[in-house]
Design a protein that fits this description.
The protein is mostly beta strands. It contains no helices and 11 strands. Strands 2, 4, 5, 6, 9, 10 and 11 form a 7-stranded mixed beta sheet that branches. About 35% of the residues are buried.
């Protein structure tokens, strides 16, 4: 399994970026996928996740990004996206995508804090 993020960069406050996570060797049939970030000197936090169940997908977001960030998946391409709008300096950090098929269906917002098996190498986002 390999997860590769791209799309990070430097942007002014109020701007937008779209991150991509190409997932190879992994088919998101169940469990959780999502985006996490780590700011300098801080712990890693869940930003946006998708919880998959037989009834479909549900997205969950950290309170700090609700209304500004949106995650989605292109199932045909096996790519996860994070659209980030109205970026603020506090959004600065390394962004990682993660995936794990073990969480039960309807795991819900617990996907934001789950200990994932698979991680990408990260992509830097800097907002000034």
């Amino acid at each position: 399994v390999q997860l590769v993020e791209s799309g990070g960069g430097s942007v002014q406050a109020g701007g937008s970026l779209r991150l991509s996570c190409a997932m190879s060797g992994y088919r998101y049939i169940r469990g959780c996928v999502g985006w996490f970030r780590q700011a300098p000197g801080k712990g890693r936090e869940g930003v946006a996740v998708i919880s998959r169940s037989d009834g479909g997908d549900s997205e969950y977001y950290a309170d700090s990004v609700k209304g500004r960030f949106a995650t989605s998946e292109d199932n045909a391409k096996n790519v996860l996206y994070l659209q980030m709008n109205i970026l603020q300096p506090e959004d600065t950090g390394m962004y990682y995508c993660a995936a794990d098929e073990h969480p039960p269906p309807d795991y819900g917002d617990s996907c934001l804090t789950y200990e994932y098996n698979y991680w990408g190498q990260g992509t830097q986002v800097t907002v000034s």
